[in-house]
Amino acid sequence: MARQERGVRTRRNILETMAGLINEVGYEAATISMLVERTGLTRGALYFHFSSKEEMARGVLAEALTSEGVREQEFKLQEWVDIGMLLAYRLPREPLMSAAIRLSIDAKARNVLGTRWPDWVDLGRDLLTEAKRRGELLPHADPWSVAKLAVGSWTGVQLVTEALPESAELVEEISALYQLLLPNVATAGVLARLDTSPRRAEQLARSIPGAASETVHVPAT
């Protein structure tokens, strides 16, 4: 059991180190030699856990697709909002998540690794489909179309927020996005009871074991 726990910690350390390199220098410039130097592991130890740099990067990508911290709510629309708000709160604070987003928007990395955007759209579509079944969505709101639009808009807001130093914190900008989007898809009775506040995202994040609560500066690539 102790050996298994060490293996889990080592694997996590490799992923976190890989994420740090991606945030600092980008996927293409990150090398196994850099990982060896920063982790203190041998190449053999690295390759015991991951067969290649590409597999490590895919492990980082997998971290972004999560509903961790989201609890069952009265409205499925609230759960859908909570997922996006939580990601916005955690991304600037957790290098693994920020690196996963960088991999998704890096055209060269995307050609090699693929992207999790289709998975995000599918996750949103499933929640929105259930929301529509429960009468939470307006008749014209198509779950797949709304999910796709939301993922694209979320990503765009994240990129612009990072590029413009005068922007508010990402979670505040994403809160504003939902406040603009939801009146066009949610029924009036449900809309009035949805919480899109950044404070809610922070409270949900604090329930996640090991989740960071302080802002971590992520250098631009």
Keywords:
single chain, 221 residues, mainly alpha, Arc Repressor Mutant, subunit A, Tetracycline Repressor, domain 2, 2 domains, 67% helix, 0% strand, disordered C terminus, HTH_TetR
Describe this structure in words.
This protein is mainly alpha-helical and 221 residues long. The chain folds into two domains: 2-62, Arc Repressor Mutant, subunit A; 63-206, Tetracycline Repressor, domain 2, CATH 1.10.357.10. 67% of the residues lie in helices and 0% in strands. It contains twelve helices and no strands. The protein has helices spanning 2-25, 32-39, 43-49, 53-64, 76-90, 95-105, 107-113, 117-133, 143-163, 170-181, 188-191, 198-206. α5 packs antiparallel against α10 (170-181) and α5 (76-90) packs across α12 (198-206). The longest helix is centred in the N-terminal third of the chain and has 24 residues, at 2-25. The protein is elongated. The chain starts with a helix and ends in a 15-residue tail after the last helix.
Radius of gyration equals 19 Å
Identify the CATH class of the largest domain.
Mainly Alpha
Number of strands: 0
Q: What global shape is seen?
A: elongated
Q: What's the assembly state of these chains?
A: single chain
Q: Helical amount among residues, as a percent range?
A: 55-70%
- Give the biggest sheet: none
Task: Describe the secondary-structure layout.
Elements: H1 2-25, H2 32-39, H3 43-49, H4 53-64, H5 76-90, H6 95-105, H7 107-113, H8 117-133, H9 143-163, H10 170-181, H11 188-191, H12 198-206
